[in-house]
Amino acid sequence: MRRLLSLCVLFLLQNVAAWSFSRRHKTLPNLSVEPVEPKAFPLQTPHSGRHFLPSHSAYRQPFWRFFSKHRGNARFTEGWYYRLTLEDVSFAIIISIEDPGHRPSSDLRLACIQVVGPRDGYIVQANRDDSLFWAWDRQQGLGCNFEYKPGYDKHVMKMQTNLSPEVWRKTVQSGFQILPTHFLGRVRGRDGTVGGLFDETDEVGTCDFDFRVVPLCGWGDVNGAQKSTAGWLASFEVFEPHWQVTMADARASGQITWNNQTYHFVDAPFYAEKNWGAALPTKWYWTQCNSFDGYQQLSVTAGGGIRSIPFGRKESLGMVSIHYNGKLYEAVPWTGTMRWKVSTWGYWELEGNCTVGDRPFEARIVYECDPDETKGLVFRAPTPDEGMVRFCKDTFEAKTTLSLWELEWDPATKSFLRKKGPPLIDRAQSTQGGAEIGGGPWWDEWERVSELKQPIRALLRLPVRLKTLRKRLKRRVS
């Protein structure tokens, strides 16, 4: 009874505070309201909105928040990854929130942005105050303002979430604001290659970005429904962690300034994904490329690792998926097979096929870099026990080769074979492949065929079976 009374008093005080604020600060932008529309654009994927419960001052806390598992001691992190590929350099913007709203406060609570730039440059800015971080529930919208310019009351400004671009540029000294198609940021961080997150250092790096994005592919056919990257079960707490590619291919226009050098760009390749859960897998690899020579729209994303599933079990699985001319070719372990061979550093060989549905195919992709010339950048990722520590290694300079074949059923061999004639994609090339290894241990080459345990395999395959059944029924009726 005492707890219920406390909740009621808290709710009343929050409403009074919000009313008082709106009365005293009419000249400031209104307290931001999340969009009513569930989608910002037709290609928006599932899981584009937040999964954590913000503790930002602008949010009225629902009473059930106090009973959420994320309010207690359970680890939780949500992260967003964006890659911008220019002609001779690449940038990665990596944003994360850890243990938001924990009661009692978690030692690993953190709001963080990492930016990877030219020549493996690496800037990190972070704050233990998770209440600075806001995010939308239904679509991509998130931000965190670390510091405001002189003359602006930080207590007043902290009540704001998304601001108009003009107001944001005028008031924010350092921070970021990511909206569905507009990215704003002023990062004033430390050199991420040395020391801890909050060590005192004279090495200060800067990165300002201001650009707009036009999505070309979400996760699915351009004219079809957008899908969850890990299947429909990603909407439930089945896997750990979860993964969603939100923009498999897009084009960005604007500018980014890295340590006083400004890069202007128009229609540059852009890519976006996110993760959420207790932490990243214990061991994983990841590759991505959407800057192939001579192709207008070709993007490949592949990844695999060891993840947790119910009843304390783990499984090793991977996928390789291609968006080509508006169509998704998805090789996942519930509709085909996938194999990988990844070295300790410098070589990623991935093969996958799909033999279920109306678009059977086979794909092969290889990423290569010279380990002696391309050392890779070791940067931070969330871990279950230590929080944000150096846990993975990346490069944006992998030589990439991609081939894609259509398959057809052969009655003689009772198997799927490659169609006669040229492949759909014949050794497409790029020198700007993104490739990563993480977790560990990486003592030797990791070669595996993706495995998916039952009954999860059957459940994930259910939508495909239902689609096939509907087609058969439709043919019978007609």
UniProtKB/TrEMBL annotation:
The organism of origin for this protein: Fistulifera solaris (Oleaginous diatom)
A molecular-function term among this protein's GO annotations: tocopherol cyclase activity
Leader peptide range in chain numbering: 1-18
UniProt protein name: Tocopherol cyclase
Keyword tags: Isomerase, Signal
EC number, as in UniProt: 5.5.1.24
InterPro entries associated with the record: Tocopherol_cyclase
Protein's UniProt keywords contain Isomerase: yes
